[in-house]
Amino acid sequence: MSNRVAIITAAGKGMGAACARELSQQGYQVALMSRSESSLELAQELGGLGVQGSVTEKDDLKKLVNATLGKFGRIDAVVNNTGHPAKGKLLELGEEDWHQGLNLVVLNVAKMAQLVTPVMQKQGGGAFVNISTFAAYEPSPSFPISSVLRAALGSYAKLYADQYAKDNIRMNNLLPGFIDSYPDQRRSVIPYP
């Protein structure tokens, strides 16, 4: 797998950084992006490519894809990881919160698929993995925007996977629960002992 290349977004810390480290350890060349400089530092550590940008900006995603192709010549895998949309009570969240959440959770995946699918088709296949949440199918009142939009992401992934399976391109969502890096001040919402 030493010639394989993976893009990981929101790769500066947490699950994104863990995915980058694991893929690098598995022999992938990695191209990382995050809003902070932390993905640049991690990319340097892993011998990969780092780009500073936001998953909500198509120009930043284009920059990441073009830089990846320029450096490595291919893209075999994309890990679409993001931060969290706004939290609050269901009816107290504003319209702008919902629009920002849509851009962060669903549209970033659609934009990345538009940019990378033609590359994967020419290469004969590839894989997308979208980091989602358990709340996609078990909605949490603590995370209403995330719950609703990650359910929509499940529909998008199913539609995409059905359409591009013929091209040997997969798309799957991972639905993790709470992880050790979850901030202490928010642990009280975890419904487990």
TrEMBL record:
Q: Is the keyword Transmembrane assigned to this protein?
A: no
Q: What molecular function does GO assign, one term?
A: oxidoreductase activity
Task: For this UniProt record, give its keywords in alphabetical order, as a comma-separated list.
Answer: Oxidoreductase
Cross-referenced Pfam families, in alphabetical order?
adh_short (PF00106)
Identify the domain of life: Bacteria
InterPro entries reported in the protein's UniProt record: NAD(P)-bd_dom_sf (IPR036291), SDR_fam (IPR002347)
Please state which protein family the record places this protein in.
Answer: Belongs to the short-chain dehydrogenases/reductases (SDR) family.
Protein's UniProt name: 3-oxoacyl-[acyl-carrier protein] reductase
